[in-house]
Specification:
Layout lengths: L11 E4 L15 H4 L6 H10 L4 E5 L2 H4 E2 L2 E2 L5 H10 L2 E5 L14 H21 L5 E3 L4 H9 L11 H25 L4 E7 L2 E3 L8 H19 L11 H4 L1 E5 L5 E3 L7 E2 L10 H12 L3 E6 L6 H17 L4 E6 L19 E6 L2 E6 L1 H13 L17 H11 L9
Parallel strand pairs: 1-2, 1-13, 2-5, 5-6, 6-7, 7-9, 8-10, 9-12, 12-13
Antiparallel strand pairs: 3-4, 10-11, 14-15
Helix pairs in contact: 2-4, 5-7, 6-7, 10-11, 11-12, 11-13
InterPro entries: GH
Protein name: B-glycosidase
């Protein structure tokens, strides 16, 4: 019996890009189709199983399954069959930047319709997939509000700070209502609320922007989690139990130099204003004291193995400080196209190679080797057995490794 049993069956998690937004040209995108995950689901999950990963973030495409409140979830069946065959536990992502046509996200109807959809989705997957059950009601509320509320990249195509704030509040209201609806179906369902770790600094020659940068780092980064946990806007009905599990995403471009309009500029490697990931994770832990995962993380191209090495060092340094880190999600499992250019990002565990129109999966050897090294260090499985859920993660192994390796926070990432 585990001395400190974890929430998930494996410490390493993964997931698949599943955005369904209306993009700037008004065309509905479906990244599951663009990556070929819909056609390669069985192979994709078998790859994760062979890598000792038993948990994956998987999307339910709200705009496609909800037609004016009439639901058709049959498109999920091939994914559910593939998960069962490979012994994968899903974290169901119920809104990944996309919502049904004709629905105003600023309206009360958005909240009630999302709650009804969450209830129906939960009923469907819970009837088909054994527990425990995990859900992310709305992915990256903070980033969604910037992307669609201030930068105008996706619907509802708003372009002001005021509209960004309005969208964030609307999404938080819907997420809280969604959690409550899901727990009417399964009171024990666990929630993973995903948002980016962000650190913004003023340009060196713009001291007048220090306060704006500070606000984005210390207020805006946390506002969605604050609302869902009930710290802010308690009239929306948030609570620590609704926040449940905090999923903090970590990418290199999360540390930025402030810009007055448009996305901020990513700090380059070696910039002395970069803050160690350990410190960012600690700040989230000290604020909420809820179980945490790194909800997404990946390097790029030839840097993927080095990125994982850095993330693991920083994460274990944070574990030594006492944070309750339940897992690290290597996202995505399969490469994805850049939203703007369509070029392959090369950030997945597997690259995608187009061979005669078929998107073949090619694991990245250095990345896989680095994953294997850390599985060995943490005494983790490298391939799934017949019932991964029967034996949850022994978090004491992770804690022991953190103390044994004695890794120190380091902001000098490459």
């Amino acid at each position: 019996m585990a001395r400190r049993p974890g929430i998930f069956p494996t410490f390493f998690l993964s997931g698949f890009e599943c955005s369904t937004f209306l993009w700037g040209d008004g065309v509905r995108r479906n990244l599951v189709a663009e990556t070929g995950h819909d056609r390669h689901a069985a192979e994709d999950y078998q790859i994760l199983s062979s890598l000792g990963i038993a948990v994956a973030r998987e999307g339910i495409p709200w705009p496609m399954v909800d037609q004016d409140g009439v639901y058709d979830f049959s498109s999920l069946d091939p994914f559910i069959d593939a998960m069962k065959a490979s012994k994968i536990t899903p974290i169901w992502d119920l809104c990944h930047y996309g919502y049904p046509d004709g629905l105003d996200p600023f309206s009360d109807a958005f909240v009630s319709r999302f709650a009804a959809y969450c209830r129906a989705a939960a009923e469907y997957v819970i009837a088909k997939v054994p527990g425990p059950h995990f859900f992310t009601p709305i992915n990256e509320i903070t980033f969604f509000s910037f992307c669609a509320g201030e930068w105008g990249w996706a619907a509802p195509y708003q372009c002001s700070r005021k509209d960004r704030d309005r969208l964030l509040l609307a999404l938080c209201r819907a997420a809280i209502a969604g959690v409550k609806a899901i727990r009417e179906v399964d009171p024990g369902a666990r929630m993973v609320h995903i948002d980016p770790l962000v650190q913004v600094v003023a340009p060196r020659d713009r001291p007048d922007q220090i306060e704006a940068a500070r606000r984005e780092t210390e207020v805006d980064t946390f506002l969605a989690w604050d609302i869902i946990s009930g710290r802010e806007h308690p009239e929306f009905g948030g609570s620590p139990e609704i926040l449940d599990i905090v999923g903090a995403n970590n990418y290199s471009f999360g540390q930025m130099e402030y810009r007055e309009s448009g996305p901020h500029a990513a700090l380059p490697p070696g910039d002395d204003r970069i803050v160690p990931l350990c410190d960012l994770l600690t700040s989230v832990w000290e604020r909420y004291r809820r179980p945490m995962i790194i909800g997404e993380t990946s390097g790029l191209g030839l840097g993927r193995a080095d990125w994982l090495r850095d993330v693991m060092g920083e994460s274990l340094a944070a574990v030594r400080r006492g944070i309750d880190l339940q897992g690290i999600c290597l996202f995505p499992a399969v490469d994805m196209p850049d939203w703007h250019t369509g070029e392959w990002v090369k950030n997945g565990i597997c690259d995608v190679v187009d061979i005669n129109g078929d998107l073949m999966r090619v694991p990245n050897p250095p990345y896989v080797d680095e994953l294997r090294r850390w599985q060995k260090e943490l005494n983790r499985v490298t391939e799934l057995d017949e019932d991964p859920s029967s034996d949850p993660v022994e978090l004491q192994d992770v804690i022991d490794a953190a103390h044994r390796l004695d890794l120190q926070p380091d902001k000098d990432w490459h």
